[in-house]
Amino acid sequence: MKEKTLKKFNFAILILFPIILLIFSVTFNVYSVGTKNRINKELENFTNSLSLRMESKYMDMMTLYFKDELNNYAIANEFTNLVKEQVRLGVTPHFNSLKFSIDYTIRTNIRNTTYGLLFISVLMFVLTLVLNFTNNNFVSSGNNTNVGTVSNNNKIDNAPQTKPINNVIDSSSSDSIKAEIEAMYKELVKEIKSSRDEQALEILEKMFQLDDRNYLALNGAGVLHTKIYSRDNEEEHFKKADKYFEYALSLYNYNENVSNNKAILYSIKYELKKLEDDYETALIIFNDALSSNHLDPELLNNRATLYSVKYKISGDENLFERALNDYDELIKIDFNNIYALNNRSAIYFNKYKNSGDKKYFDKSIEDCNTAFKINSSEALYDNRGSLYIYKF
Questions:
Q1: Cα separations (Å) of 389 from 265, 268, 305, 374?
Q2: Would you call 276 exposed, middle or buried from its count of C-beta atoms within 10 A (0-12, 13-18, 19+)?
C-alpha cells in the first residue's frame, strides 16, 4: 500500500510542477500585455493633453499679435484648426517613437521571461523523474514501519469534505437594480438642484450599495460634491468630486458628460483659488470635448464662462472677445438659453466696469431683461456667481 501511495504522490508532483509553471507563465504574459496596453493608453492621453496645452499656449501667444484678425469667428476657427494640426504633427511622431521603444522592451522581457520559465519547467520535470526513480528504489527495499501511518492518512484523504455554500446573486435581478438606480438618480438630481445635501447623500449611499461602479452614481456624486465645494470652498469636497469623476472616466472611457462636469470642477476651483494650473486643466478638457462636438451648447457655455471668469480676474481683453464669441455662437443656436444670456450679461457688466463705456451697461441690462422675459424664475442669478451647465 505504501509503495502505491508514494508512486501516486510522486506522479502528482511530476504533473503539478509543470502545470503550475505553465499557469504562472500564462498569467505573467497576460499581465504584461495588460501593462503594455495601460502604458500605451496613458501615453496616448498624455500626448493629447500635451498637444492641447501647447495649442492653448500657442493661441494665447498668437492672439497677442493677430488679435484683430482673430476677432473674426471664421478666421479664428480656421486658425485654431491649423494650430491643432501643426502641434499634433510636431508632438505625435515623437511619442509614437517612444511607444514603439516601450513595446519592443516589454515584448523582449516577456519573451525572455517566458523562455526562462519554460526552461525551469523542463528542469523541474527532469528532477521530478529522478526523484520518482530514487523513491521507488527506496520503497522496494522493504521498509514497512510507517504502514499504519500511511493507512491513517489514506483514511483522512478518503474522508468526505464539507463544501462551503456560495452566495449566488441571480443575474436576472440586474435589470431591476438598474431600473431602481435610475429612479433614485432622478430623485438625486432634484435634491442636488434644491441644495438638499443630506437627502442627496442618503440617496447616493443607497445607490452605491446597489452598485458601486454605476455611472449615474459616480457622476451624481461628483456633481453633488462640486456644488458643495463651490458653496463652502472646502478642499475635502473638491478632492471627493475629483475622485468620483476620475473613477467614472477610467470606467467609461472618458465620457463627455463626466468630462464636462470635471472641467466645471476645475473652473470653480480657478475662480476660488485663482491658480493658473486649474484654469489650464479646465480649458484643456473643454477644448478636447469641443474638438469632437464644437456646437455642444453646454460645453460652449461652460468654456465661455471660464473665459469670462479669467477676464474678470485678469482684465485681458482677448479673453473678453473669446467669451463673447462663444456666447454669441451659443445664442445663435438657442436664443432662449437662460445660462448664456445671464453669463453674457455678466461679462458685459464687467466690461462696463473696466472701460466705463455705457453701451456695455446697456447691453448687460438688455440681456437681463431678455432672460427675465423668457423665464423669470431662472433669470437674474448674478448673485450666485458664474453659471455653469452640469451634464446630468
A1: 11, 12, 10, 18
A2: exposed
Among 272, 260, 181, 186, which residue's Cα sits nearest to residue 222? 260
Q: Which three cell numbers stand for residue 83?
A: 494650430
Of 49-53, 157-161, 355-359, give the range with the top mean pLDDT.
355-359
- Name which of 205, 202, 178, 180 is nearest 191 in CA terms: 202
Q: How far apart are CA 176 and CA 385, in angstroms?
A: 40
pLDDT tens figures, 188-205 = 999 998 889 999 999 999
DSSP alpha helices (H): ranges in the chain? 2-70, 73-140, 147-158, 174-193, 197-210, 215-232, 235-251, 256-273, 276-292, 297-314, 317-333, 338-355, 358-374
CA 225, CA 218: separation in Å to the nearest integer?
11
Q: Which of 294, 377, 314 is nearest to 342 (CA)?
A: 377
The answer to whether the beta carbons of residues 113 and 28 sit under 8 Å apart is: yes
Tens-place pLDDT, residues 12-56: 766 776 777 778 777 777 777 777 677 777 777 777 676 667 667
**Alpha-carbon torsion, ordered 59, 63, 69, 71, to 10 deg:** 90
Residue 288: Cβ within 10 Å count: 19
| DSSP state letter for 159 | S
Let me know: does 391 contact 260? Beta carbons within 8 Å: yes
pLDDT the model gives residue 71: 64
Assess whether pLDDT exceeds 90 at residue 309: yes
Phi first, then psi, for residue 48 (nearest 5°) are -65, -45
Non-local CB neighbours of 211 within 8 Å, separated by 6+ positions: 177, 181, 217
